[in-house]
Write a structure and sequence with these properties.
This protein is mostly helical. About 65% of the residues lie in helices and about 0% in strands. The protein has 16 helices and no strands. The protein has helices at about 1-15, 20-35, 40-50, 60-70, 80-90, 95-100, 125-135, 140-145, 150-155, 165-170, 180-185, 190, 195-200, 210-215, 220-225, 235-250. It is globular.
């Protein structure tokens, strides 16, 4: 059975890794999980999470795709998510259940919290700031990196002049609005960068459902860093400790493309 499961996971992982676009990968994975049923899905996802894949492995892409799939409302039908969650609880797979619904983060600020934007645009209305976020001049980009409005950040993350260094400033900002950090997570172009995943996991204002989905994608040295960061929620640190131990003791899957 274990051999069959390993083969099934690697077949699915190779298929996902061969697809050029995130939307295609999400659709294929959603179809596979819907067809598999709760018990088989839990076994597959638990194996995938526990195998601690490296970024160059197809299994890493599969785990990354699952996190992205859960971030898109309705991409995986709610009854399917609920059935997998219930089966994970029944099977004692608590960490997988947290991956599905997210673990709590420390005091994330909600969208209504009045954090001020950069003083240089503080008097600019929201609609005008959204338009500024589309401009390709560095001055406006830098003024909007600290904007507390998720809609402004969504536009900014699509700006072709934005750099990884800019995105890291958004992802690491403290305090931060939860919905702003959700926009970073949903921006596929940027969240696939390892440094952005790391920054989100180390930010105590990152919503728990995001941290839970990104932790399995971190390297052991960064998991150890998360595990010892007193600013992070205790459960986040505990998950990081367990994952770091899994990386140390697991046998990495071979690289197959």
């Amino acid at each position: 059975m274990a051999t069959d499961l390993t083969a099934a996971v690697r077949r699915l992982a190779r298929r996902l890794a061969s697809l050029p676009e995130g939307a295609m990968r999400r659709a294929v994975l959603a179809e596979a999980l819907t067809a598999a049923g709760p018990a088989e899905s839990v076994a597959l996802l638990k194996f995938l999470r526990d195998c601690a894949p490296l970024p160059q492995h197809p299994e890493y892409t599969a785990l990354e795709t699952f996190g992205a799939l859960l971030a898109v409302p309705g991409a995986l039908p709610y009854p399917v998510v609920a059935a997998i969650y219930e089966e994970a609880h029944r099977a004692g797979a608590a960490e997988l259940a947290r991956f599905l619904l997210g673990s709590p983060a420390a005091a994330a600020i909600d969208a209504d919290t009045p954090l001020p934007p950069d003083p240089r645009v503080a008097e600019v209305p929201l609609g005008a700031r959204k338009q500024l976020a589309r401009r390709q001049d560095r001055d406006h980009i830098e003024r909007l990196l600290a904007d507390p409005a998720a809609l402004v950040i969504r536009q900014l993350l699509q700006n072709p002049r934005l750099t990884e260094k800019d995105v890291l400033k958004i992802a690491a900002r403290r305090p931060a609005v939860a919905d702003v950090l959700r926009e970073v997570f949903r921006a596929e172009r940027w969240v696939r960068r390892y440094s952005v995943k790391r920054a989100l996991c180390l930010n105590p204002y990152t919503p728990g459902e995001i941290t839970a989905r990104l932790l399995p994608l971190l390297r052991r040295e960064d998991l150890k860093l998360v595990a010892t960061d007193a600013t992070l929620h205790e459960r986040v640190r505990g998950d990081a400790r367990r994952l770091a131990a899994a990386v140390r003791t697991s046998s990495r899957p071979p690289t197959r493309r």
